[in-house]
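Bumping my old thread because nobody answered last time. Still need a sequence for this structure:
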């Protein structure tokens, strides 16, 4: 068992502030990121660590014992970082990320990188994968975090984690027969070509019903019954269910989340950032 320092820091902050929302504000991350870190920590230790008592939170007996160790670990970690945080790296980095990678988590990782390398400035751009690839090819980005199929990996890609894909629909609109309306990110969306190909090969009539600019708009459209969507299982939220008719379709391929550096030799700063992101975000692929 290995307990990461940032999960312990989040655990202690939740108990210190009495809630997930307050902890998120103090740590400058999203509430969903706080919840994810607590759930992951509880899964790692195999025990409940926090008890909800009305509107407040308190540690379980196991949580109280871990909290003592957590504070010591955090203090020693921060002391070591302060001693070793001096860095000779300088420069400016342009990093592109998609919504599915999560700008909040990337921002958190980039923030820690900034503390270790204070003379490196990171500019973050959030956009669709195909746009980020275009910017990378044009030299407008140094690194992009994007989705690819294993067959499309580049030699300068670093795999962060793998995701499953899933068909989703509204519980009240399952489209069990007839023409299937598709909800997608649009013509250049990552999932649309695969969705259309799989439906065509299965001889299922379909039409484009909704194109959304963001993950939030896509999920809202599915919830409202506009149609069926193909997305990463990690992105599923809200009042949606697996599309029953999708169970008869061939198995969906794995999608890999990668850090893709611009073509050519990588600078020392780019190499350091990719290594940092691999360490910080690679754990998202853990079971």
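Sorry it took so long. Here it is:
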């Amino acid at each position: 068992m290995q307990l990461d320092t940032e999960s312990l820091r989040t655990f202690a902050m939740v108990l210190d502030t009495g809630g997930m929302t307050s902890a998120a504000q103090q740590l400058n991350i999203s509430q969903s990121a706080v919840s994810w870190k607590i759930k992951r920590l509880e899964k790692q230790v195999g025990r409940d660590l926090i008890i909800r008592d009305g509107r407040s939170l308190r540690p379980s007996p196991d949580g109280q014992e871990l909290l003592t160790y957590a504070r010591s670990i955090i203090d020693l970690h921060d002391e070591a970082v302060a001693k070793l945080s001096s860095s000779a790296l300088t420069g400016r980095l342009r990093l592109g990320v998609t919504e599915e990678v999560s700008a909040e988590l990337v921002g958190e990782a980039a923030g820690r990188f900034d503390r270790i390398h204070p003379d490196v400035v990171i500019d973050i751009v959030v956009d669709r994968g195909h746009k980020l690839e275009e910017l990378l090819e044009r030299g407008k980005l140094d690194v992009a975090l994007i989705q690819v199929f294993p067959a499309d990996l580049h030699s300068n890609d670093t795999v962060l984690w793998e995701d499953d894909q899933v068909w989703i629909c509204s519980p009240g609109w399952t489209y069990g027969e007839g023409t299937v309306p598709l909800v997608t990110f649009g013509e250049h969306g990552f999932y649309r070509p695969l969705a259309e190909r799989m439906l065509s090969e299965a001889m299922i009539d379909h039409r484009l019903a909704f194109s959304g600019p963001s993950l939030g708009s896509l999920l809202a459209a599915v919830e409202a019954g506009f149609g069926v969507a193909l997305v990463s299982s990690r992105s599923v939220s809200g009042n949606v269910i697996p599309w029953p008719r999708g169970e008869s379709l061939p198995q969906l391929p794995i999608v890999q989340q990668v850090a893709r550096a611009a073509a050519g030799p990588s600078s020392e700063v780019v190499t350091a950032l990719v290594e940092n992101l691999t360490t910080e975000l690679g754990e998202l692929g853990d079971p």
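The chain has three domains: 5-84, 91-162+256-285, 165-253. Let me know if any region looks off to you.
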